[in-house]
C-alpha cells in the first residue's frame, strides 16, 4: 500500500522529512477496523512528532490522526460496524496513522461519519472536536458554575483548529459567553463567523481587555497555545476558583501563582484514553457520534479552510510547513492517493 512516513526527525524544508513509501498492508486485531483511508486532516501533533520522534532503526513512522474512510474489514469482537461503512476517527498516537491507504484502528474510538459532510469536511473534525469536547466537559466541567464568576470562557488561539471547534461547541451546547483571541483581520472575522461573542487581541495584554468588556471575571480559560506566555494574564483575568485548561507543551510552567485564587489547572491530551486503554475509552466514540449528529443538523460546521490535493509526501510537507508558520486558520485537509503513474 502507499504511505507517507519518516525515519529520522528533520526540518520540513528537507525533502526527506516526509517521503513516499510502499508498505505491506497492516494487520488488524479483533477489536479493530481495517479502514480504506479516503481523506485526512493535518494537525500540530503531526508536526511535533515528525520533528522530535526517532523511529527505531530500519523502520518508518506513519503519522496522521484525522481520517475519513470506508471499512474494509471488521475484527472478531467488533460490533456496530460492517464492511462498506463510512467512518471517521482521530486514531491513536502509538499506532501507525492515516498517512496511508489502509489503517487499522480500534473500533471503540471510531464513529460513522456525518452524512451531510464531504470526506474532507468530515476529516477536519475528529481530533479537534474530541479535544474540545473533553476539555469543555471532562476537564473544565463547564456545567458546574464557578460561584461569583461570569459565565464565560476565554479561548486563547480561537482561530486554530481546536479553537475553531471549541467556539462552535460552546455556542451549540452551553450558554457560556465565548471570548476568543485573534489578532489578524482574517482571524478576527473567522472567529466571529464561528460564533464568538467577543474577540480580543492576544498580542496585547489580555486582562485589561477582559476588564474593558464589562462582563466580570470569566469562570473558565482554555489556552490552546503559548500558555507559558499568557499564564500571568490568565491568572489576573480569571475569577477566583476558576478553572484553566491547556493543550500545548510548554517547557516549564510555574503554577505557584494559581494558589491565591484557588485556581485549578487541567491538561487535556486527546490520546490519553487510547494510549492507556482507559475504562472509558469508548467515550470518544460517543463524542464523535454526537459531533456527527450536530454536523448533520447543521448546528456545527467543518473547520476545514484549505485543501492541498492528494495525500503525498510533497503535499504533506506543504501542510506541515503551513502549520509550522503559525499562519494557518482552521484545518488543512488532503484526499485520495496519487496513482503510481503520477510518480507517487
TrEMBL record:
Spans traversing the lipid bilayer: none
Database matches in InterPro entries: ADH-like_C, ADH-like_N, ADH_Zn_typ-1, ER, GroES-like_sf, NAD(P)-bd_dom_sf, Zinc-ADH_QOR/CCCR
SMART domains, per the entry: PKS_ER (SM00829)
Iron-sulfur among keywords: no
Keywords for this protein: Metal-binding, NADP, Oxidoreductase, Zinc
SUPFAM superfamilies listed in its UniProt record: GroES-like, NAD(P)-binding Rossmann-fold domains
Enoyl reductase (ER) domain span: 13-334
Alphabetized GO MF terms: oxidoreductase activity; zinc ion binding
Zinc among keywords: yes
Entry-linked Pfam families: ADH_N, ADH_zinc_N
Highest taxon listed in the record's lineage: Bacteria
Protein family according to the UniProt entry: Belongs to the zinc-containing alcohol dehydrogenase family. Quinone oxidoreductase subfamily.
Protein name: Zinc-type alcohol dehydrogenase-like protein
Organism: Pseudomonas putida
Amino acid at each position: 500500500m502507499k504511505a507517507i512516513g519518516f525515519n529520522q526527525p528533520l526540518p520540513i524544508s528537507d525533502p526527506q522529512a516526509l517521503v513516499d513509501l510502499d508498505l505491506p498492508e497492516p494487520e488488524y486485531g479483533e477489536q479493530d477496523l481495517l479502514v480504506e483511508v479516503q481523506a485526512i486532516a493535518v494537525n500540530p501533533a503531526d508536526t511535533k512528532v515528525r520533528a522530535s520522534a526517532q523511529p527505531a532503526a530500519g523502520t518508518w513512522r506513519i503519522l496522521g490522526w484525522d481520517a475519513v474512510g470506508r471499512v474494509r474489514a471488521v475484527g472478531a469482537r467488533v460490533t456496530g460496524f460492517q464492511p462498506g461503512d463510512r467512518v471517521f476517527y482521530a486514531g491513536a498516537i502509538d499506532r501507525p496513522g492515516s498517512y496511508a491507504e489502509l489503517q487499522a484502528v480500534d473500533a471503540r474510538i471510531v464513529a460513522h461519519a456525518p452524512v451531510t459532510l464531504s470526506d474532507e469536511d468530515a476529516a477536519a473534525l475528529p481530533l479537534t472536536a474530541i479535544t474540545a469536547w473533553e476539555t469543555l466537559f471532562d476537564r473544565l466541567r463547564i456545567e458546574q458554575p464557578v460561584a461569583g464568576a461570569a459565565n464565560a470562557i476565554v479561548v486563547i488561539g480561537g482561530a486554530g483548529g481546536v479553537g475553531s471547534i471549541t467556539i462552535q461547541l460552546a455556542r451549540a451546547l452551553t450558554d457560556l459567553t465565548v471570548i476568543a483571541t485573534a489578532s489578524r483581520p482574517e482571524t478576527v472575522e473567522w472567529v466571529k463567523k464561528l460564533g464568538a461573542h467577543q474577540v480580543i487581541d492576544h498580542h496585547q495584554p489580555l486582562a485589561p481587555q477582559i476588564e474593558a468588556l464589562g462582563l466580570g471575571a470569566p469562570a473558565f480559560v482554555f489556552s490552546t497555545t503559548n500558555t507559558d506566555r499568557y499564564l500571568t494574564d490568565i491568572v489576573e483575568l480569571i475569577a477566583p476558583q476558576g478553572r484553566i485548561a491547556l493543550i500545548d507543551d510548554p517547557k516549564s510552567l510555574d503554577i505557584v501563582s494559581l494558589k491565591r485564587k484557588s485556581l485549578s489547572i487541567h491538561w487535556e491530551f486527546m490520546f490519553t484514553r487510547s494510549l492507556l486503554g482507559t475504562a472509558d475509552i469508548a467515550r470518544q466514540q460517543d463524542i464523535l457520534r454526537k459531533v456527527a449528529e450536530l454536523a448533520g443538523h447543521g448546528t456545527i460546521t467543518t473547520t476545514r479552510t484549505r485543501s492541498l490535493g492528494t495525500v503525498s509526501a510533497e503535499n504533506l510537507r506543504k501542510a506541515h510547513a503551513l502549520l509550522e508558520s503559525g499562519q494557518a486558520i482552521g484545518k488543512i485537509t488532503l484526499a485520495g492517493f496519487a496513482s503510481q503513474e503520477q510518480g507517487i
